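Exercise 3.2. Students should predict the tertiary structure of the chain below and write it as structure tokens, then compare their answer with the key that follows.

Predict this chain's 3D structure.
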Amino acid sequence: MLAELHSHSTYSRMGKGGLTESLSTPEEMILYAKQTGIHALAITDHDTLEGNLKTQSFAKKQGIILIPAAELSTTRGHVVALGIQELPKLKIEKCFEFYEALDSIRSQGGIAVAAHPYDAKNEGVGSLCLNCDAIEVFNALNIEHISNWKAAWVAKQHGFKGLTSASDAHWHRMIGHGVTEVHTDSDEISSILKNIRKGNTTLHTRYVPTKLIMEWALTRFKDSYTMTLDYINQTYKWPKRIAYKKLLALTTKSPGKIDYMFRMMTYFALANVFAYKAIREVLRIG
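Answer key:
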């Protein structure tokens, strides 16, 4: 059974401006998962089950097992909660308390997956991943590679069995890049989660192409142009405000000749992320 265990729909929002992270509705994610041969899908929107639970019947009609799930912002980092029907109760400054979240997930028969534990943005739980039921050792958006290498190395050093691969899809076109093949003869969610925890899985790993990430970012800015412009005006002061407004205006000229500049910016940003992550790991080891 092929499972996509980490993805986001339009119900995921970020930042003070409340911008949507994903370009696709839950229904679009489900239909694309079916098209790409995915059998089980977890739509893991940030700190909400709304989109997932609303589309359970739609997924069933499409022959897709939709795992009730959410990506929780905890006091120690992001945790993907698979197989839950409600969010944990305790919040500390808009975050769920880490250990209380794990207890809540397990009390509902779910499993806690450490999402991108060593990502470059420091949004993962780091070494606390060993307290979770599974570790996401491959995230298709960690295109600097080092974050995934470290997660896999830590899991191997500790003999950790529950390993997952995920696309962390923020657009339906990203689904299917990081897939976890779960070895089970049952289509029951409880069996899927049980076998993930036991390590009865095979990981299929493929990074999201940089070009697709660029297209996602540009489309997202264009779709939320007015909201983004308002956010820039309210948040930034001169000269940063002027620079950001000019960059935002350039997105309206894509697709076109301007795309070469966006490609250069994307590769430059990737190189910087790789260098930053590499230096940070070297300093930590030293």
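Discussion points: The chain has a mean pLDDT of 93. The chain has two domains: 2-208, 211-285.
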